[in-house]
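As a warm-up, study this chain.
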Amino acid sequence: MARLPRLPRLPQRLPGPDDPLLDSMSRRRFLRASGVIGASALAAGAAGFGIGELLSTSTPASREEAKTRSKLVVVTLYGGNDGLNTVIPYADPAYYKARPELAYKPERVLPLDTALALNPMLPSLHRLWQSKRLAVVAGVGYARPDRSHFRSMDIWQTANPLRPVRTGWVGRWLDGTAAPVEAAVSFESVLPPLLVGETRSGACISVGGLTLPSGLTSGMIGALGQPQAGESALQARAAVSYADLVKMDTMVRDASSSSSSPTAEAEHLPGTATGGASSLGAQLALVARCVEAGVPTSVYSVSLGGFDTHAEERAGHEMLLRELDTALASFVDRMAASPAGQKVSVLVYSEFGRRVRANASDGTDHGTAGPVFVLGPQVAGGLYGEQPSLKDLDDGDLKWTTDFRDVLGSALATVLAAEPARYLDGYQPTLLPIFPAA
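Now compare it with the structure written out below.
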Protein backbone atom coordinates (compact mmCIF):
# COMPACT_ATOMS: atom_id res chain seq x y z
CA MET A 1 0.00 0.00 0.00
CA ALA A 2 1.28 3.44 -0.85
CA ARG A 3 1.85 5.45 2.29
CA LEU A 4 -0.30 8.49 2.84
CA PRO A 5 1.78 11.67 2.58
CA ARG A 6 2.85 13.32 5.81
CA LEU A 7 0.74 16.42 6.24
CA PRO A 8 2.66 19.58 7.14
CA ARG A 9 1.40 21.70 9.98
CA LEU A 10 -0.60 24.67 8.77
CA PRO A 11 0.44 28.09 10.07
CA GLN A 12 -1.04 29.31 13.33
CA ARG A 13 -0.54 32.97 12.43
CA LEU A 14 -1.32 34.70 9.15
CA PRO A 15 0.64 37.78 7.97
CA GLY A 16 -1.05 41.05 8.88
CA PRO A 17 -2.07 43.67 6.28
CA ASP A 18 1.08 45.72 6.95
CA ASP A 19 3.37 42.72 6.76
CA PRO A 20 5.93 43.10 3.93
CA LEU A 21 4.93 39.61 2.81
CA LEU A 22 1.67 41.07 1.53
CA ASP A 23 3.24 44.07 -0.20
CA SER A 24 2.55 43.73 -3.95
CA MET A 25 2.03 40.03 -3.50
CA SER A 26 -0.26 37.88 -5.58
CA ARG A 27 -2.57 35.37 -4.00
CA ARG A 28 -0.33 32.58 -5.30
CA ARG A 29 2.79 34.00 -3.63
CA PHE A 30 0.84 34.58 -0.41
CA LEU A 31 -0.25 30.96 -0.33
CA ARG A 32 3.29 29.76 -0.96
CA ALA A 33 4.75 32.03 1.75
CA SER A 34 2.12 31.03 4.30
CA GLY A 35 2.68 27.34 3.79
CA VAL A 36 -0.62 26.49 2.12
CA ILE A 37 0.97 25.40 -1.14
CA GLY A 38 3.14 23.15 0.99
CA ALA A 39 -0.08 21.68 2.36
CA SER A 40 -1.24 20.68 -1.11
CA ALA A 41 -1.10 17.05 -0.05
CA LEU A 42 -3.92 17.82 2.34
CA ALA A 43 -5.79 19.74 -0.32
CA ALA A 44 -5.49 17.12 -3.03
CA GLY A 45 -5.04 13.88 -1.13
CA ALA A 46 -7.75 11.51 0.00
CA ALA A 47 -7.52 12.79 3.56
CA GLY A 48 -7.96 16.46 2.70
CA PHE A 49 -11.45 17.88 3.03
CA GLY A 50 -13.02 21.14 4.08
CA ILE A 51 -15.98 21.85 6.32
CA GLY A 52 -17.67 23.74 3.50
CA GLU A 53 -17.30 20.75 1.20
CA LEU A 54 -18.55 18.42 3.90
CA LEU A 55 -21.66 20.48 4.57
CA SER A 56 -22.25 20.77 0.82
CA THR A 57 -22.65 16.99 0.62
CA SER A 58 -26.01 17.43 2.34
CA THR A 59 -28.84 17.05 -0.15
CA PRO A 60 -32.61 16.67 0.27
CA ALA A 61 -32.15 12.93 -0.22
CA SER A 62 -29.29 12.65 2.30
CA ARG A 63 -31.20 14.71 4.86
CA GLU A 64 -34.15 12.38 4.57
CA GLU A 65 -31.94 9.30 4.75
CA ALA A 66 -30.10 10.71 7.79
CA LYS A 67 -33.30 10.37 9.81
CA THR A 68 -33.12 6.57 9.55
CA ARG A 69 -29.41 5.75 9.08
CA SER A 70 -27.34 4.91 12.14
CA LYS A 71 -24.16 6.91 12.78
CA LEU A 72 -21.17 6.25 15.01
CA VAL A 73 -19.00 8.79 16.85
CA VAL A 74 -15.70 7.33 18.08
CA VAL A 75 -14.12 9.22 20.99
CA THR A 76 -10.47 8.37 21.68
CA LEU A 77 -9.04 9.19 25.11
CA TYR A 78 -5.31 9.38 24.44
CA GLY A 79 -2.82 8.50 27.15
CA GLY A 80 -4.45 5.56 28.89
CA ASN A 81 -7.46 6.49 31.02
CA ASP A 82 -7.51 5.24 34.61
CA GLY A 83 -10.50 2.94 34.34
CA LEU A 84 -10.50 2.04 38.03
CA ASN A 85 -11.04 5.68 38.96
CA THR A 86 -13.60 6.17 36.17
CA VAL A 87 -15.80 3.14 36.84
CA ILE A 88 -15.01 2.57 40.49
CA PRO A 89 -15.31 -0.80 42.33
CA TYR A 90 -16.33 1.09 45.44
CA ALA A 91 -17.52 -1.97 47.39
CA ASP A 92 -14.21 -3.84 47.04
CA PRO A 93 -11.74 -3.41 49.93
CA ALA A 94 -8.91 -4.33 47.54
CA TYR A 95 -9.50 -1.08 45.65
CA TYR A 96 -8.80 1.03 48.74
CA LYS A 97 -5.82 -1.10 49.76
CA ALA A 98 -4.16 -0.75 46.34
CA ARG A 99 -4.46 3.02 46.05
CA PRO A 100 -5.26 4.57 49.44
CA GLU A 101 -4.48 8.14 48.36
CA LEU A 102 -6.25 7.97 44.98
CA ALA A 103 -9.29 5.91 45.92
CA TYR A 104 -12.68 7.62 46.21
CA LYS A 105 -14.64 7.09 49.39
CA PRO A 106 -18.00 5.31 48.95
CA GLU A 107 -19.99 8.38 49.99
CA ARG A 108 -18.54 10.43 47.11
CA VAL A 109 -19.13 8.11 44.16
CA LEU A 110 -22.17 7.87 41.85
CA PRO A 111 -23.45 4.28 42.15
CA LEU A 112 -24.34 2.19 39.11
CA ASP A 113 -25.17 -0.84 41.24
CA THR A 114 -24.04 -2.31 44.56
CA ALA A 115 -20.51 -2.93 43.27
CA LEU A 116 -19.61 -0.27 40.70
CA ALA A 117 -19.94 3.51 40.54
CA LEU A 118 -18.97 6.42 38.33
CA ASN A 119 -16.38 8.97 39.34
CA PRO A 120 -18.01 11.96 41.13
CA MET A 121 -16.86 14.19 38.24
CA LEU A 122 -19.33 12.39 35.92
CA PRO A 123 -22.79 13.50 37.15
CA SER A 124 -24.17 14.08 33.66
CA LEU A 125 -23.11 10.62 32.50
CA HIS A 126 -24.73 9.25 35.64
CA ARG A 127 -27.95 10.99 34.58
CA LEU A 128 -27.68 9.29 31.17
CA TRP A 129 -27.11 5.97 32.96
CA GLN A 130 -30.28 6.47 34.97
CA SER A 131 -32.24 7.15 31.78
CA LYS A 132 -30.79 4.00 30.12
CA ARG A 133 -28.78 5.96 27.55
CA LEU A 134 -25.33 4.94 28.81
CA ALA A 135 -23.82 1.47 28.54
CA VAL A 136 -20.65 0.51 30.39
CA VAL A 137 -18.65 -2.42 29.01
CA ALA A 138 -16.34 -3.69 31.73
CA GLY A 139 -12.88 -5.21 31.44
CA VAL A 140 -12.27 -4.49 27.76
CA GLY A 141 -8.85 -5.48 26.43
CA TYR A 142 -6.94 -8.08 24.45
CA ALA A 143 -4.60 -11.03 25.01
CA ARG A 144 -0.90 -10.40 25.61
CA PRO A 145 -1.44 -6.67 26.27
CA ASP A 146 1.16 -4.14 25.22
CA ARG A 147 1.82 -1.21 27.56
CA SER A 148 3.29 1.00 24.84
CA HIS A 149 1.00 3.92 24.00
CA PHE A 150 1.80 3.67 20.32
CA ARG A 151 1.53 -0.09 19.92
CA SER A 152 -1.60 -0.39 22.04
CA MET A 153 -3.33 2.48 20.20
CA ASP A 154 -2.28 0.86 16.92
CA ILE A 155 -3.91 -2.38 18.07
CA TRP A 156 -7.15 -0.63 18.99
CA GLN A 157 -7.39 1.38 15.79
CA THR A 158 -6.44 -1.45 13.44
CA ALA A 159 -8.40 -4.03 15.47
CA ASN A 160 -5.57 -6.53 15.06
CA PRO A 161 -3.79 -7.61 18.28
CA LEU A 162 -1.78 -10.33 16.53
CA ARG A 163 0.37 -8.39 14.04
CA PRO A 164 0.91 -4.82 12.83
CA VAL A 165 -1.26 -3.85 9.87
CA ARG A 166 -1.52 -0.66 7.85
CA THR A 167 -5.27 -0.22 7.81
CA GLY A 168 -7.84 0.76 10.42
CA TRP A 169 -11.04 -1.16 10.98
CA VAL A 170 -13.16 1.74 9.71
CA GLY A 171 -10.72 2.20 6.81
CA ARG A 172 -11.24 -1.42 5.76
CA TRP A 173 -14.99 -0.83 5.88
CA LEU A 174 -14.47 2.18 3.59
CA ASP A 175 -12.53 -0.08 1.21
CA GLY A 176 -15.11 -2.85 1.31
CA THR A 177 -18.06 -0.58 0.63
CA ALA A 178 -16.27 1.70 -1.87
CA ALA A 179 -17.45 4.56 0.33
CA PRO A 180 -16.88 8.21 -0.59
CA VAL A 181 -14.44 10.26 1.48
CA GLU A 182 -17.24 11.95 3.42
CA ALA A 183 -18.44 8.58 4.79
CA ALA A 184 -15.90 8.85 7.65
CA VAL A 185 -14.68 12.17 9.07
CA SER A 186 -12.13 13.04 11.73
CA PHE A 187 -12.20 16.40 13.53
CA GLU A 188 -8.72 15.75 14.93
CA SER A 189 -5.48 17.50 14.01
CA VAL A 190 -4.29 14.59 11.86
CA LEU A 191 -6.03 11.65 10.23
CA PRO A 192 -6.06 8.73 12.72
CA PRO A 193 -5.07 5.24 11.48
CA LEU A 194 -8.62 4.20 12.37
CA LEU A 195 -9.93 5.82 9.16
CA VAL A 196 -7.17 4.69 6.77
CA GLY A 197 -7.84 1.89 4.28
CA GLU A 198 -5.82 0.32 1.46
CA THR A 199 -7.54 2.24 -1.31
CA ARG A 200 -9.65 4.79 0.56
CA SER A 201 -9.50 6.91 3.66
CA GLY A 202 -11.75 9.17 5.63
CA ALA A 203 -11.60 12.96 5.65
CA CYS A 204 -9.55 14.92 8.16
CA ILE A 205 -10.82 18.37 9.14
CA SER A 206 -8.61 19.93 11.79
CA VAL A 207 -10.38 22.18 14.29
CA GLY A 208 -7.24 23.80 15.67
CA GLY A 209 -7.76 27.56 15.92
CA LEU A 210 -5.96 30.22 13.89
CA THR A 211 -4.73 33.49 15.33
CA LEU A 212 -5.65 36.30 12.95
CA PRO A 213 -3.84 39.59 13.55
CA SER A 214 -5.87 42.77 13.87
CA GLY A 215 -6.62 44.32 10.52
CA LEU A 216 -6.79 41.05 8.60
CA THR A 217 -10.48 40.71 7.81
CA SER A 218 -12.62 37.90 6.51
CA GLY A 219 -13.07 39.98 3.39
CA MET A 220 -9.34 39.84 2.72
CA ILE A 221 -9.35 36.08 3.19
CA GLY A 222 -12.36 35.85 0.88
CA ALA A 223 -10.47 37.77 -1.79
CA LEU A 224 -7.56 35.39 -1.46
CA GLY A 225 -9.97 32.53 -2.01
CA GLN A 226 -11.25 33.83 -5.36
CA PRO A 227 -10.21 32.04 -8.58
CA GLN A 228 -7.23 33.57 -10.35
CA ALA A 229 -6.45 33.23 -14.03
CA GLY A 230 -3.47 31.12 -14.93
CA GLU A 231 -3.08 29.19 -11.69
CA SER A 232 -3.05 25.42 -11.49
CA ALA A 233 -5.98 23.40 -10.20
CA LEU A 234 -3.89 22.41 -7.18
CA GLN A 235 -3.22 26.02 -6.22
CA ALA A 236 -6.88 26.90 -6.70
CA ARG A 237 -7.87 24.00 -4.45
CA ALA A 238 -5.29 25.05 -1.85
CA ALA A 239 -6.74 28.56 -1.80
CA VAL A 240 -10.23 27.22 -1.19
CA SER A 241 -8.86 25.01 1.59
CA TYR A 242 -7.16 27.99 3.22
CA ALA A 243 -10.34 30.05 3.22
CA ASP A 244 -12.18 27.00 4.50
CA LEU A 245 -9.74 26.72 7.41
CA VAL A 246 -10.70 30.25 8.47
CA LYS A 247 -14.39 29.33 8.23
CA MET A 248 -13.68 26.32 10.42
CA ASP A 249 -11.93 28.53 12.96
CA THR A 250 -15.04 30.74 13.17
CA MET A 251 -17.24 27.67 13.63
CA VAL A 252 -15.00 26.33 16.39
CA ARG A 253 -15.03 29.62 18.25
CA ASP A 254 -18.82 29.84 17.93
CA ALA A 255 -19.21 26.24 19.08
CA SER A 256 -17.06 26.68 22.17
CA SER A 257 -17.99 30.24 23.16
CA SER A 258 -21.03 29.21 25.16
CA SER A 259 -19.07 27.19 27.69
CA SER A 260 -15.58 27.33 29.12
CA SER A 261 -13.26 24.38 28.61
CA PRO A 262 -10.54 23.16 30.96
CA THR A 263 -8.40 21.98 28.04
CA ALA A 264 -5.94 24.88 28.29
CA GLU A 265 -5.48 24.33 32.00
CA ALA A 266 -5.09 20.58 31.51
CA GLU A 267 -2.15 21.17 29.18
CA HIS A 268 -0.17 22.40 32.20
CA LEU A 269 -0.89 19.31 34.27
CA PRO A 270 1.01 16.03 34.13
CA GLY A 271 -0.11 13.75 31.35
CA THR A 272 0.37 13.06 27.67
CA ALA A 273 -1.16 15.92 25.69
CA THR A 274 -1.96 13.87 22.60
CA GLY A 275 -5.46 14.31 21.22
CA GLY A 276 -7.82 16.83 19.72
CA ALA A 277 -6.32 20.30 19.30
CA SER A 278 -9.48 21.98 20.56
CA SER A 279 -11.90 21.07 23.32
CA LEU A 280 -13.88 17.89 22.98
CA GLY A 281 -17.04 19.97 23.25
CA ALA A 282 -16.04 22.02 20.19
CA GLN A 283 -15.29 18.88 18.19
CA LEU A 284 -18.63 17.32 19.12
CA ALA A 285 -20.47 20.56 18.34
CA LEU A 286 -19.16 20.31 14.78
CA VAL A 287 -20.28 16.68 14.60
CA ALA A 288 -23.72 17.77 15.80
CA ARG A 289 -23.91 20.45 13.13
CA CYS A 290 -23.07 17.91 10.43
CA VAL A 291 -25.61 15.41 11.75
CA GLU A 292 -28.34 18.03 11.90
CA ALA A 293 -27.47 19.25 8.39
CA GLY A 294 -28.00 15.75 7.01
CA VAL A 295 -24.41 15.18 5.92
CA PRO A 296 -24.05 11.56 4.64
CA THR A 297 -21.30 10.66 7.13
CA SER A 298 -21.56 7.34 8.96
CA VAL A 299 -18.48 7.53 11.23
CA TYR A 300 -16.98 10.53 13.03
CA SER A 301 -13.71 10.50 14.99
CA VAL A 302 -12.89 12.97 17.78
CA SER A 303 -10.47 12.83 20.69
CA LEU A 304 -9.32 14.16 24.05
CA GLY A 305 -5.76 13.79 25.33
CA GLY A 306 -3.93 14.09 28.62
CA PHE A 307 -4.76 10.78 30.31
CA ASP A 308 -1.19 9.58 30.91
CA THR A 309 -1.41 10.33 34.62
CA HIS A 310 1.89 9.10 36.07
CA ALA A 311 2.06 11.81 38.74
CA GLU A 312 -0.41 13.93 40.74
CA GLU A 313 -3.25 12.14 39.05
CA ARG A 314 -6.22 13.32 41.07
CA ALA A 315 -6.40 16.97 39.93
CA GLY A 316 -5.60 16.37 36.27
CA HIS A 317 -7.82 13.32 35.90
CA GLU A 318 -10.77 15.04 37.53
CA MET A 319 -10.39 18.02 35.21
CA LEU A 320 -10.38 15.76 32.15
CA LEU A 321 -13.37 13.77 33.39
CA ARG A 322 -15.34 16.98 33.95
CA GLU A 323 -14.66 17.99 30.35
CA LEU A 324 -15.60 14.53 29.12
CA ASP A 325 -18.80 14.55 31.19
CA THR A 326 -19.97 17.95 29.96
CA ALA A 327 -19.09 17.37 26.32
CA LEU A 328 -20.63 13.90 26.02
CA ALA A 329 -23.86 14.65 27.86
CA SER A 330 -24.42 17.92 26.01
CA PHE A 331 -23.90 16.14 22.70
CA VAL A 332 -26.27 13.27 23.52
CA ASP A 333 -28.94 15.68 24.76
CA ARG A 334 -28.62 17.71 21.56
CA MET A 335 -28.80 14.59 19.40
CA ALA A 336 -31.94 13.45 21.15
CA ALA A 337 -33.74 16.55 19.85
CA SER A 338 -33.63 15.64 16.14
CA PRO A 339 -34.63 12.57 14.09
CA ALA A 340 -31.13 12.28 12.59
CA GLY A 341 -29.52 12.69 16.01
CA GLN A 342 -31.65 9.90 17.43
CA LYS A 343 -29.64 7.47 15.30
CA VAL A 344 -26.26 8.52 16.70
CA SER A 345 -24.22 6.29 19.02
CA VAL A 346 -21.00 7.32 20.77
CA LEU A 347 -18.17 4.88 21.53
CA VAL A 348 -15.58 6.06 24.10
CA TYR A 349 -12.33 4.13 24.62
CA SER A 350 -8.68 4.53 25.63
CA GLU A 351 -5.65 2.47 24.56
CA PHE A 352 -5.33 0.85 28.00
CA GLY A 353 -6.20 1.34 31.65
CA ARG A 354 -3.74 1.93 34.49
CA ARG A 355 -2.00 -0.34 36.98
CA VAL A 356 -4.12 -1.38 39.94
CA ARG A 357 -1.64 -0.15 42.52
CA ALA A 358 -0.80 3.57 42.69
CA ASN A 359 2.82 4.58 42.22
CA ALA A 360 5.01 6.68 44.53
CA SER A 361 4.15 9.92 42.70
CA ASP A 362 0.43 9.95 43.49
CA GLY A 363 -0.27 8.62 40.02
CA THR A 364 -0.67 5.36 38.13
CA ASP A 365 1.39 3.65 35.46
CA HIS A 366 0.43 1.95 32.20
CA GLY A 367 -1.95 -0.95 32.70
CA THR A 368 -4.20 -3.17 30.62
CA ALA A 369 -7.97 -3.62 30.58
CA GLY A 370 -10.44 -0.80 31.16
CA PRO A 371 -14.08 0.19 30.67
CA VAL A 372 -15.63 1.35 27.40
CA PHE A 373 -18.60 3.70 27.28
CA VAL A 374 -21.34 3.53 24.67
CA LEU A 375 -24.00 6.23 24.83
CA GLY A 376 -26.71 7.77 22.73
CA PRO A 377 -30.43 8.45 22.51
CA GLN A 378 -31.24 4.86 21.47
CA VAL A 379 -28.38 2.95 23.09
CA ALA A 380 -29.40 0.00 25.26
CA GLY A 381 -27.97 1.28 28.52
CA GLY A 382 -26.70 -0.92 31.30
CA LEU A 383 -23.65 -2.89 32.39
CA TYR A 384 -22.09 -5.37 29.97
CA GLY A 385 -19.27 -7.80 30.51
CA GLU A 386 -17.63 -8.76 33.79
CA GLN A 387 -15.67 -6.43 36.04
CA PRO A 388 -12.12 -7.82 36.41
CA SER A 389 -11.09 -9.10 39.81
CA LEU A 390 -8.75 -7.00 41.93
CA LYS A 391 -7.45 -10.13 43.63
CA ASP A 392 -6.75 -12.29 40.58
CA LEU A 393 -4.22 -10.11 38.74
CA ASP A 394 -1.74 -10.65 35.93
CA ASP A 395 1.58 -9.27 37.17
CA GLY A 396 -0.25 -6.46 38.95
CA ASP A 397 -2.65 -5.76 36.08
CA LEU A 398 -6.31 -6.44 35.52
CA LYS A 399 -7.18 -9.46 33.39
CA TRP A 400 -9.39 -8.53 30.47
CA THR A 401 -12.84 -10.11 30.38
CA THR A 402 -14.25 -8.66 27.12
CA ASP A 403 -12.33 -8.78 23.84
CA PHE A 404 -12.21 -5.25 22.40
CA ARG A 405 -13.12 -6.66 19.00
CA ASP A 406 -16.49 -7.72 20.43
CA VAL A 407 -17.27 -4.04 21.01
CA LEU A 408 -15.95 -2.94 17.61
CA GLY A 409 -17.64 -5.87 15.88
CA SER A 410 -20.94 -4.97 17.49
CA ALA A 411 -20.64 -1.46 16.08
CA LEU A 412 -19.80 -2.84 12.63
CA ALA A 413 -22.71 -5.29 12.66
CA THR A 414 -25.35 -2.88 13.87
CA VAL A 415 -24.41 0.74 13.19
CA LEU A 416 -22.69 0.04 9.86
CA ALA A 417 -24.75 -3.04 8.89
CA ALA A 418 -21.54 -4.85 7.96
CA GLU A 419 -20.19 -8.39 8.35
CA PRO A 420 -17.75 -7.94 11.26
CA ALA A 421 -15.38 -10.81 10.44
CA ARG A 422 -14.72 -9.28 7.02
CA TYR A 423 -13.20 -6.20 8.64
CA LEU A 424 -11.71 -7.85 11.75
CA ASP A 425 -9.24 -10.16 9.97
CA GLY A 426 -11.59 -13.12 10.26
CA TYR A 427 -12.36 -12.71 13.96
CA GLN A 428 -15.96 -13.65 14.76
CA PRO A 429 -17.04 -11.34 17.57
CA THR A 430 -19.56 -12.05 20.27
CA LEU A 431 -22.08 -9.30 19.52
CA LEU A 432 -23.22 -7.09 22.38
CA PRO A 433 -26.83 -5.83 22.12
CA ILE A 434 -25.94 -2.21 22.77
CA PHE A 435 -26.07 -0.23 19.52
CA PRO A 436 -29.25 0.65 17.62
CA ALA A 437 -29.39 -1.14 14.26
CA ALA A 438 -28.87 0.67 10.97
